[in-house]
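[SOLVED] Need 3D model of a two-part complex

Original post:
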Amino acid sequence: MSLRIYVPRDTTALALGAELVAQALVAEAGRRQLAVDLVRNGSRGMFWLEPLVEVEHDGQRIAFGPVDSAAVPDLLDALLAGPSRHPRYLGPTEDIPYLKAQQRLTFARAGLGDPLSLELYRSAEGFKGLERALNLSSQAVVDEVTASGLRGRGGAAFPAGIKWQTVLDTAADQKYIVCNADEGDSGTFADRLLMEADPFQLIEGMTIAGLAVGASQGYIYLRSEYPQAAQILAEALRLAQAEQYLGSNIRGSGKAFELELRIGAGAYICGEETSLLDSLEGKRGMVRAKPPLPAIAGLFGKPTVVNNVLTLAAVTTVLSQGAAFYADYGSGRSRGTLAVQLAGNVLRGGLVELAYGASLRRLVEDFGGESYSGRPLRAIQVGGPLGAYLPASHWDTPLDYEAFAEIGAMLGHGGVVLFDDSVDLSAQARFAMAFCAAESCGKCTPCRLGSVRGVEVIDRIIAREAPEQHLALLEELCDTMEHGSLCAMGGLTPLPVRSALKHFPEDFS
Amino acid sequence: MNNVVAQGFAETVAECVQHYSNVPGGLLPLLHAIQRAFGYIPAEAVPLIATGMQLSRAEVHGVISFYHDFRSAPAGRHVVQICRAEACQAMGARELEAHAKKQLGIEFGETTADGNISLEPVYCLGNCACSPSLRIDDAIHARVDAGRFDALLAELAEPSPS
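Solution:
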């Protein structure tokens, strides 16, 4: 009997040497004439343990990590002599507290096996949502999504059901489903993990969306910074097409949904939905004024659902398990689970899926542990480059959209970036403006020029040139950007700037 | 560009244009295809793209110049992108950036004199739990400090098989 060993092919695992580990395993097993069935799985999202090697042993999956290629001979010895003797032995994978304490719905399958195995996907509840949707009316599918309370995971948290209803109700000869996979926020990788570990879930979710609103064409707009995800998705689309999960006759139902992968070209602003639509149309990624909403006049002027990867993925759970099951998770108006991404200066970085409502502190302390550097933590930026920097006094805030809005912050796409006490918040505030200047689409003045002026004013404050006057000027500039910008890029750049000023004034004097 | 090169060049561009001219919103995939073929988007290709896609040259130029990925000049044999975003900053990306510029003797947007390496900034590679990150061609590397950078750089100095 051969030994089944799992070595992830996820970007982070590869970035930490997983390919070398896989090669060493094959070579060493060959040398010992040991039959090994090597599976290149997705990641479990416990990135601090990558490369995480799993082995099927006595009927369960046991884990070792982090494993480097030099440790492979020892690891094979340990498998024969008693795995628990190996210094990197972590026990049964499912019992690792980091994983066990999570409430995984969307990421339940992540890391289980080959992301491109349709057989595995089907055996682990895959396509149950699609099967159900195929037997429901469009309106019934939309009703299910509305009842689940599912809100957009891209950052704006708009109710998915309302968006879908608008598209369903708008008559047109052609409608579109667009997946926003332009995950550009620093500190976020949940979309990438899902696409690399469980791509069929996204395909299933988009197909359900197509059936729900009457759209026969979909696009995944993926950022070019994700070459591994692009490769896996392209192959997943081909496989799904071959087995009629996509195409002109989905599983013999007579219903059609075509899906195409498009690659971005390095522009943060294309994560903004209207800019993304312009980019998909082959234009500069310029933000559009709203109204009209994309749900009424979106891609090529047609009614379009634009949803984030995780929103579309969550739809599969909503349809397979029912709206009530999904809505049972969460707090307040934030229903379901949130994929938090622990990043930056953190000891145990990775993906943590929990029902909304857990506190930021619980997440950081129970999962993240402490800083990677060993120095005291000082600031946490939640919600990407447009999110606030929060001091320890705000870390008890529960992770739900409204609670974060109340403290002048936002959850965004769930990125949580930790900084130790070596951080200089004036440099972070300056960076927020500089980033906006670099990535602004240039359509509206407050964003295009305001960000440039913002860098200059912050430079003067740091240089102690008439700081009182320049601080007042910066406040005014932030007001202008917040109220006068066309989209969230210019409108939210003041959030990190103001939070840095408010909570860490000592860094500016 | 000499005439012989120009001949093969026009054919390649025409093939790409033909492939994408009927694809809705096909300009981005077309530009990606041309960049794959030549390593950059030659100025000589712009009028051919414009005609084929029924756009003005200004529109094509506007799209090329909007996106960071599209180049109007060839890059070095390897492209090294250093992440400048917050998660990497929290782990020393600013120091890594300074080190890289010093080691290579170039700034962002420049190519080493031997044509081996182009250095670019990137805003997030989605590897934020194991920062600092950098990308060399299509491979992403995690936890890159100065020592690791130098080791990666040494690998790039090896004569390439081509």
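Edit: Chain A has a mean pLDDT of 97.
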